[in-house]
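To the wet lab folks,

You asked to see what we're planning to order before we commit. Fair enough. Below is the target structure as tokens, and below that is the sequence we designed to fit it. If anything looks off to you, flag it before the synthesis order goes out.
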């Protein structure tokens, strides 16, 4: 994404011109507006947060800006915490045969998978709630109001899960820049003795 093109300004645009362009486009792309777009509004905000800041803008112009910096995205904090936890674990165990990057990726993919499964469950519950609501016949709206309240809560939960999935997808993208040189697994030979005699088996550790 080109931040200047997103805002519709030239690379030489002044701070005031950037602010004016942002306000104009923000009004048109706001999700609450007819024809608005949550994705376009998000991209617009991302571009504005960088170009309105002289330091970030300079780094962006030089091709050195990282959108995963702490103040720009939760991705940095998530990866930093994961690195911290796994580095301590490896340092304490002394096991250098584990590919820590691939391990982190598997953990993130598992989180995404769990999120998608929960969204599917939420959709099923909402569908069944609507079926229940359609079967209720009463002049009193209490039961229907309760169902609609529950549906609203579940939809909100789904929105939050979708946001978490997006962050996790960004984490996976971030980790693509990393490789880890793990030690080769050692082959250890040992003998298993039983009533029928000994047998030698090789196992990788």
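Sequence we intend to order:
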């Amino acid at each position: 994404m080109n931040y200047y093109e997103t805002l519709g300004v030239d690379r030489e645009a002044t701070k005031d011109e950037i602010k004016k362009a942002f306000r104009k486009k923000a009004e048109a792309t706001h999700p609450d507006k007819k024809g608005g777009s949550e994705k376009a509004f998000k991209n617009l905000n991302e571009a504005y947060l960088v170009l309105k800041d002289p330091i970030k803008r300079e780094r962006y112009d030089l091709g050195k800006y990282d959108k995963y910096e702490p103040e720009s995205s939760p991705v940095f904090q998530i990866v930093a915490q994961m690195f911290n936890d796994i580095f301590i674990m490896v340092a304490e165990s002394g096991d250098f045969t584990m590919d820590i990057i691939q391990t982190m990726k598997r953990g993130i993919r598992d989180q995404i998978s769990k999120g998608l499964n929960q969204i599917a469950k939420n959709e099923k519950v909402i569908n069944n709630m609507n079926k229940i609501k359609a079967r209720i016949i009463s002049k009193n709206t209490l039961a229907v109001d309760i169902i609609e309240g529950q549906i609203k809560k579940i939809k909100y939960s789904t929105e939050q899960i979708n946001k978490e999935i997006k962050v996790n997808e960004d984490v996976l993208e971030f980790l693509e820049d990393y490789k880890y040189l793990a030690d080769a697994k050692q082959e250890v030979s040992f003998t298993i003795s039983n009533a029928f005699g000994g047998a030698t088996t090789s196992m990788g550790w």
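Structural context that might help your review: The two ends are 45 Å apart (CA to CA). The chain has two domains: 3-61, 74-175.

Thanks,
Computational group
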